[in-house]
């Protein structure tokens, strides 16, 4: 199993600090979660039904009819490599490590590359996997760039897979609303923007034939009845969407300014996190953890990812903690 953000209970045991006492900034999940209302009993009692209206609401939200609901984009990440014969796969790196892992587990030959290298060496690959925007590197791509890359791959039967888990704060950059194209696969996640990671829900957008093949592999009832009920409401709540995007962008800027004041200028960012490349990352993570602040550390390159504090008190706590670390020389360059 690969390491991911979270693991707060493990950190609580390691550092002897109760879970509720932590400021958990270790994930890229929005701290401004959509407010889940009471769930009707029938959502628990009945098997999920795929004609309950969810797909219509999702099509309106994503701007496309070519959608398949899945148990988090992770389900599609693990299954899609099984729908191709052995291929040469280029995966954006650093980035969400499950992509490369899933293709390798399915027997494909995988290279982890920078975005520049992937675009320059497109002819070397049958499949290219991009995160847009990337996590943690923050890279974003112009639509023309992506369509050009897709055309180069699809012309010889290749795939371009674009993971848009963090794009909901900038929906105008999404490829979802474009007409479905053979060899173009777009993954969307509910967990990040809606703050509903525990629902384990996402969508795949691509051509009908591939959606059918993927659906057959995944089987029935990919989403629980309770999740389907919540998603129908959350995806339709346009006023909340607008407010959430405004809050995310404002908090991301505020976090970048706070980190810069404390000698940790971000190397990259998105609306959901700030990423700081720093050779002191291991010691900084430990120093923060001793104060009950949990952040995500990456080994290559040595770096820390800071998720968004959820309110003024959380920002103040991070500010104070980094200030104390600087006084103790633990943040000194």
What labels would you give this structure?
Aspartate Aminotransferase, domain 1, 16% strand, 13 strands, 333 residues, alpha/beta, four-stranded antiparallel beta sheet
Give your account of this protein's structure.
This protein has two domains: 8-34 and 239-327, Aspartate Aminotransferase, domain 1, CATH 3.90.1150.10; 42-236, Type I PLP-dependent aspartate aminotransferase-like (Major domain) (Aspartate Aminotransferase, domain 2, 3-Layer(aba) Sandwich), CATH 3.40.640. Helices cover 39% and strands 16% of the residues. The chain has 13 helices and 13 strands. A hairpin with a 2-residue loop joins strand 9 and strand 10. The longest helix has 24 residues, at 238-261. The relative contact order is 0.16.
* Major sheet size, sense and barrel closure: 7 strands, mixed
β-strand percent reads 15-25%
Number of strands: 13
Mean pLDDT across residues: 94
How many helical elements? 13
Instruction: Tell me what the CATH architecture of the largest domain is.
Output: 3-Layer(aba) Sandwich
Unreliable residue runs: none
Radius of gyration: 20 Å
Give the neighbour order of strands across the main sheet.
2-8-7-6-5-3-4
> What's the number of structural domains?
2
Question: Topology, please?
Answer:
Elements: H1 8-15, E1 23-24, H2 42-45, H3 54-62, E2 68-70, H4 73-79, E3 88-92, H5 98-105, E4 109-113, H6 115-120, E5 127-131, H7 143-154, E6 159-163, E7 184-189, H8 191-194, E8 202-205, H9 208-218, H10 225-236, H11 238-261, E9 268-270, E10 273-277, H12 281-290, E11 293-294, E12 296-298, E13 303-307, H13 312-327
Parallel strand pairs: 1-11, 3-4, 3-5, 5-6, 6-7
Antiparallel strand pairs: 2-8, 7-8, 9-10, 10-13, 12-13
Helix pairs in contact: 3-10, 4-5
């Amino acid at each position: 199993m690969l390491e991911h953000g979270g693991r707060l209970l493990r950190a609580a045991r390691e550092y002897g600090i109760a879970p509720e006492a932590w400021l958990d900034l270790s994930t890229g999940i929005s701290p401004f979660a959509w407010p889940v209302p009471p769930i009707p009993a029938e959502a628990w009692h009945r098997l999920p039904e795929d004609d309950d209206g969810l797909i219509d609401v999702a099509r309106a939200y994503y701007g496309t009819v070519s959608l398949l609901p899945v148990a988090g984009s992770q389900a599609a990440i693990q299954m899609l490599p099984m729908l191709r014969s052995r291929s040469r796969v280029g995966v954006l790196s650093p980035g969400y490590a499950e992509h490369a892992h899933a293709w390798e587990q399915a027997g494909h030959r995988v290279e982890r590359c920078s975005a520049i290298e992937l675009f320059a060496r497109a002819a070397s690959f049958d499949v290219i996997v991009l995160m847009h925007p990337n996590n943690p590197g923050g890279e974003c791509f112009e639509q023309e760039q992506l369509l050009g890359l897709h055309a180069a791959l699809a012309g010889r039967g290749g795939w371009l897979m674009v993971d848009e888990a963090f794009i909901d704060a900038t929906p105008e950059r999404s490829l979802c609303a474009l007409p479905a194209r053979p060899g173009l696969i777009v993954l969307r996640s509910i967990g990040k923007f809606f703050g509903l990671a525990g629902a384990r829900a996402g969508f795949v957008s691509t051509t009908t034939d591939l959606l059918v093949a993927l659906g057959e592999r995944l089987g029935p009832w990919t989403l629980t009845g309770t999740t389907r009920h919540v998603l129908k409401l959350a995806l339709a709540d346009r006023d909340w969407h607008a407010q959430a995007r405004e809050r995310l962008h404002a908090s991301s800027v505020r976090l970048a300014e706070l980190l810069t004041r404390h000698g940790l200028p971000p190397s990259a960012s998105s609306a959901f996190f700030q990423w700081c490349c720093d050779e002191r990352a291991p010691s900084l993570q430990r120093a923060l953890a001793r104060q009950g602040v949990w952040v995500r550390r990456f080994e290559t390159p040595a770096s820390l990812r800071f998720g968004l504090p959820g309110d003024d008190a959380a920002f103040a706590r991070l500010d104070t903690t980094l200030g104390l670390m600087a006084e103790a020389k633990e943040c000194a360059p």
